[in-house]
Amino acid sequence: MVAEELRSRISPRELIFSTSRSSGPGGQNVNKVNTKVELRFYVQGSSNLSAQEKEKILEKLNKKINADGELIVVSQSERTQLMNRKKSEEKFFKLLAAALTEKRKRRSTKPTDASRKKRLEKKKKRGSVKKLRKIFEINEE
Questions:
Q1: Residues 35-85: tens digit of each pLDDT
Q2: What are phi and psi of 43, to 5 degrees?
Q3: DSSP of 24-89
Q4: How many CB atoms lie within 10 A of CB 94?
Q5: Is the pTM of this model over 0.85?
Q6: Each residue of 88-140: pLDDT tens digit?
Q7: Distance CA 132, CA 23 (A)
Q8: Which letter does DSSP use for residue 4 in this model?
Q9: Which domains does the chain have, with CATH numbers?
Q10: Which of 56, 32, 35 is nearest to 44 (CA)?
């Protein structure tokens, strides 16, 4: 699933933004202005997601979901509230898109003949190097 598709499906009214003072770049500005943005999204309450999608989100993003069932995304890296808001929205839609995309199953493949030969040659070379390290005793009788 693509983040842009989710952006068109999820209503901006479902996203709750709150601001607070942030740590991070900005000098004294950090101490005076509420630039940290916290985006909250109530997964179960979303009318634009199917039951299966909600289930996947709750399962895959359970570390970012609080006890109330809200998905929380925080951004405090920028100096302005507006930029942090945009950044938190981007993070949110990327998270949802990643959670809703199916992982492709890995197709098992066999090693090629060339790679097999190369591996065996390396083993022989390594073995010969180790063989040369041995101390040979000369028996003088």
A1: 889 999 999 888 888 899 889 999 998 898 999 989 999 998 888 889 999
A2: -65, -50
A3: SSSTTHHHHS--EEEEEEESTT-SSS-HHHHHHHHHHTGGGB-TTSEEEEEE--SSSHHHHHHHHH
A4: 13
A5: no
A6: 999 999 999 999 898 889 999 999 999 999 999 999 999 999 988 887 777 76
A7: 61
A8: H
A9: 3-100 (3.30.160.20)
A10: 56
Residue 84 and residue 76 in contact, taking contact as beta carbons nearer than 8 Å: yes
What is the arrangement of strands in the sheet containing 15-20, beginning at the earlier edge strand? 15-20, 36-42, 70-75
User: What separation, in Å, do the N-terminal and C-terminal C-alpha atoms of the chain show?
Assistant: 81
Strand partners, 42: 70
Residue 57 token pair: 């989100």
Provide the residue type at 83 as one letter: M
Contact 21, 33 (CB under 8 A): yes
Tokens read off for 71: 């998905």
